[in-house]
Specification:
16 strands; TIM Barrel; 8-stranded mixed sheet; alpha/beta; Glucose Oxidase, domain 1; Enzyme I, Chain A, domain 2; 21 helices
Length: about 550
């Protein structure tokens, strides 16, 4: 592994953020259309007409979102439909009408109504607080309608561009066109933000949490380096050419490697797909993957007032198991709580939901939730031909792992595992692994709890960087504990999608990697190009670094 030539002429002022993916792209900046400025208050001569204008503006926003949803597909359509429901909430219109009756003009009345909703969501915390920012986009669209201004949103300069924004609203991310948008750069956001997840799914290079991007002007040429988390303004032509050549080589290598994951010396590393909803099933099943390493079942439970019944669950699970006949499917039981509150599973009055009753802990409050789910999984597994395994989220103690495994086996399911998402589980991994059959490390939550950093808070995104050496220490502890107990250990967090970091994880003792299907080819190619000894050397480099940025740089330098 020889060190690479440094990029020629990289300016000292290169903009740094959190890199997403391993791709790169160069092009002119196009900024998101700005939100309308709220004008000075004006007297209202006709409150009835003003109220009618407010209702018409909200209705127009709803109609626009529905049109976007009709043009979108899968999760994008779901996101837009949810946004339309918020804008169509009659309580919102009534609060705006009350403000008009009290003397406010339409734009200020709409702003006050949305602000009251926002305050309520922020007070609820967790998932609701994360969604509060989405209200700003709806407010701005309604205000723009009232002022007769263009709606804020995606630019259309007539040529491909690098999209730069403070952050991206769901209504915009849902309709990104990869043929027009070369790369994404946002001032806010972190490695698990919806912008980062979308960029990864689309294969777009992105840098999020890049504060310096606020000063990038429209039309300015930039080079976005997803792997390095850098944005180079006015890049030298040789740097653009080198980045493009490296990307072509990387894609060529990925296309040339197929089949089960293996290091260059034949060490097996199972490559698995993450699956979060049934509409993702065709793509995941068609991917060159050895199965599903993380089947998130929350899609069946979200946005409901009652838990789905056994029959509904069985039908959904059977569709997945049948599609993966002969392959592994690891089902994660309901992960409610924290950023996924459910009225029938979690308490609304928890002051800190991320540290509250979530994941497996909800089964203590309502054991039947888990019993129904396990019965449905068992029924769907029978005769499917899939290698069905079941794991529980948010396990902290060996006793919890043992109790869960007993419940799984009581339903006739042969393989029970647990997620390693809290430091307590990583540090006692051997004892936990002795109580079950396998461990799966969720790096996103493990980082959140290791650094006491809310994963939804963009200001703390740097602490959640999966290259943090302390996080790698915890992964190593879990892998060593699993090996001592004879239990396989995998990673299903976002870290598994980074080809360079995947090598480090294998060097730490991880035996399987689960990621978005689009990320697997490059991970497979990276493994095929390096021996297990190489991976171990890279892991030692990363763990010995002072911080995440240094760890990333040392490993990439060694890879050449």
């Amino acid at each position: 592994m020889t060190p690479p030539q440094p990029l020629a002429g990289v300016p000292a002022g290169a903009l740094a953020g959190i890199g997403v993916g391993s791709a790169s792209a160069a092009g002119p900046v196009a900024r998101m259309a700005a939100a309308p400025a709220l004008p000075a208050p004006r007297p209202v001569a006709d409150p009835a007409a003003e109220t009618a204008a407010v209702r018409a503006a909200l209705a127009a926003v709803v109609d626009d979102l529905h049109r976007r949803a009709d043009r979108a597909a899968g999760p994008a359509a779901d996101v837009l439909a949810a946004q339309a429901m918020i804008a169509a909430d009659p309580v919102l219109a009534e609060r705006a009408a009350e403000s008009v009756a009290a003397g406010s003009d339409g734009p200020h009345a709409v702003t006050a109504a949305f602000d009251s909703f926002r305050t309520a969501l922020e007070a609820a915390g967790g998932y609701f607080a994360e969604r509060a920012a989405d209200l700003d986009d709806l407010r701005d669209r309604a205000v723009a309608r009232l002022l007769g201004l263009p709606s804020p949103g995606l630019p259309d300069p007539g040529h491909p561009y690098v999209l730069v924004a403070d952050d991206l609203a769901p209504a915009d991310t849902a309709l990104l066109d990869p043929d027009k948008v070369l790369a994404l750069v946002t001032v806010r956001g972190g490695p698990t933000s919806h912008t980062a997840i979308l960029a990864k799914a689309l294969g777009l290079p992105a840098v999020v949490g890049c504060a310096g991007a606020a000063n990038l002007a429209d039309g300015r040429p930039v080079l976005v380096l997803g792997a390095e988390g850098l944005v180079l303004a006015d890049p030298a032509p040789v740097d653009v050419a080198r980045a493009a050549d490296e990307q072509r080589q990387r894609r060529s290598r990925a296309a040339g490697v197929r089949g089960p994951g293996r290091t260059a010396d034949g060490h097996p590393v199972a490559l698995l797909a993450n699956l979060g909803a049934l509409h993702e099933l065709p793509g995941a099943a068609a991917a060159d993957a050895e199965g599903v390493g993380l089947f998130r079942t929350e899609f069946l439970y979200l946005d409901r007032t009652e838990a789905p019944g056994a029959d509904e669950q069985t039908a959904a699970y059977r569709a997945v198991f049948t599609a993966f006949t002969g392959r592994r499917v690891v089902v994660r039981t309901l992960d409610a709580g924290a950023d996924k509150p459910l009225p029938f599973a979690t308490a609304a009055d928890e002051e800190n939901p991320a540290l509250g009753v979530r994941g497996l802990r909800t089964s203590v409050r309502d054991p039947q939730l888990l019993e129904t789910q396990l019965a449905a999984i068992a029924a769907a597994a029978r005769g499917s031909g899939a290698d069905v395994r079941v794991m529980a989220p948010m396990v902290s103690l060996p006793a919890e792992a043992a109790a869960f495994a007993a419940r799984v086996r009581a339903h006739g399911l042969p393989s029970a595992g647990v997620m390693v998402e809290v430091p307590a589980a990583a540090l006692r991994a051997e004892r936990i692994a002795q109580a079950c059959d396998f461990l799966s490390i969720g790096t996103n939550d493990l980082a959140q709890y290791a650094f006491a950093a809310d994963r939804t808070l963009g200001a703390l995104a740097g602490l959640l960087d999966p290259w943090q050496p302390v996080l790698l220490d915890l992964v190593a502890a879990a892998a060593e504990g699993g090996a001592a107990a004879g239990a396989p250990v995998g990673v299903c967090g976002e870290a598994a999608a980074d080809p360079a970091l995947a090598l480090v994880l294998v060097g730490l003792g991880v035996g399987s990697l689960s990621a978005a299907p689009s990320c697997l080819p490059e991970v497979r190619a990276a493994l095929a190009g390096h021996t297990l000894a190489d991976c171990r050397a890279l892991a030692a480099l990363a763990r010995g670094a002072a911080d995440a940025a240094t760890a990333r740089a040392l490993v990439r330098e060694a890879l050449g």
